Sequence to fold (124 residues):
Amino acid sequence: MELANVFRTDFLPLLKKKEKIVPIPLHPDMLLERTFSQVDELLHAANVPFTHVLFKTLNQSQIGKTKKERVSSELIFTVTQDVQKQDILLIDDLYTTGATLHHAAYVLKKAGANSVHALTLIRA
Fold:
């Protein structure tokens, strides 16, 4: 959690954003294992307000899967709040293939979000 302070200034520009800030959530089992959400901690460190509107339904590792396998896998999120006509900015710590953000954006758009953009700390 102390590491979040190192990246604090990288997230300060989010304070000027008009979109609803939505962190990519951990699956509840993973949250229990880790005891904290790294994405939430990054946002907390910069005092960026955010709203959880996604629930991660599957707890499966993406390690070892190809991009095609990741993107074509079963949807891993559900939307838990009304997002009709809202502009959403998804926040995640790591972008590898984009599958996680793709799945999140898909369910948000399907639920009526006006637009969905994403910001990640690292692109691998």
